[in-house]
Amino acid sequence: MSTLTKKRVAILISGRGSNMSALLAAAADPDYPAEIVGVVSDKADAAGLGIAAARGVPAQAIARADHASKDAHDAAIDAALTKLDAEIVALAGYMRLLTAPFVEKWQGRMINIHPALLPSLKGLDTHRRALEAGMRVHGCTVHFVTPEMDDGPIIAQAAVPVMLGDDEDALAARVLKAEHRLYPKALRLVAEGKVRMQGGRAVFSGLAEDPAGEASSLFSPGALRDAVDLEALARFTP
Ligand code: GAR
Questions:
Q1: Catalytic: which of 67, 73, 114, 143?
Q2: Is the CB of 177 under 6 A from ligand 1?
Q3: Ligand 1 within 6 A of CB of 127
Q4: How does pLDDT run across 77-134, given as a tens digit for each residue?
Q5: Which of 112, 155, 179, 205 could form an SS bridge with 91, CB 3.0 to 4.6 Å?
Q6: Which three-class secondary structure state does DSSP give residue 62?
Q7: Strand pairing partners for 158?
Q8: Is 114 marked active-site?
Q9: What is the pLDDT of residues 63-72, one digit of tens each?
Q10: Can you give the residue ranges of every domain in the chain?
Q11: How far apart are CA 209 and CA 121, in angstroms?
Q12: Which pLDDT tens digit goes with each residue over 187-206?
């Protein structure tokens, strides 16, 4: 039996719920420092609700249409989170901007995943815009949520190459795979207290640096990768 005290995490979704599924899968590990105590959707027909319920996680819809205002809607969500005794809120494809009072109440305890390397490409249609801009590297970001959309302190990012033949769907699929790997790792950092929001920044502690990280770069187009001789780079002193 593990003696780990797990942080209580609630997930907010609006649709498919694949990032939610990645968090649920990670949290199934007895050594993971967080448990998923509930899932809330602002859409009654979100596919993710059924997936969560099938895994035995309490899942409920709190629809915007059933509330007189945005404030009333967010207050109902806040009440549900409080009832779940949530300590951390993870937005996973929650596609509605939250009101400032709600965000301020949960600030430092609420995180989001965005399908782009912030602060580039905030908002919608990130994959189409990355292709239109001719970017050769794209990716995803997990960040603390602040009242401005897609604007909070960055916790973690994963980069993927934009391949020469990519269309929007191919690029989105590659980024989504990276999202599913990144989000559980980022939530782990938050749950373990290894990253905190302080003075408007993400502040890290107790994290070992990866010495291999300094020499590693993602080259795109991929053909350029051959040109990098890592041993020569290690010998290089400017
Ligand atoms: C994900 O790609 C997520 O990063 C994005 O919506 C998708 C939800 O998919 N979120 C945003 O664009 C928020 N700005 P999912 O429901 O399968 O996790």
A1: 114
A2: no
A3: no
A4: 999 999 999 999 999 999 999 999 999 999 999 999 999 999 999 999 999 999 999 9
A5: 112
A6: coil
A7: 140
A8: yes
A9: 999 999 999 9
A10: 1-106, 113-238
A11: 28
A12: 999 999 999 999 999 999 99
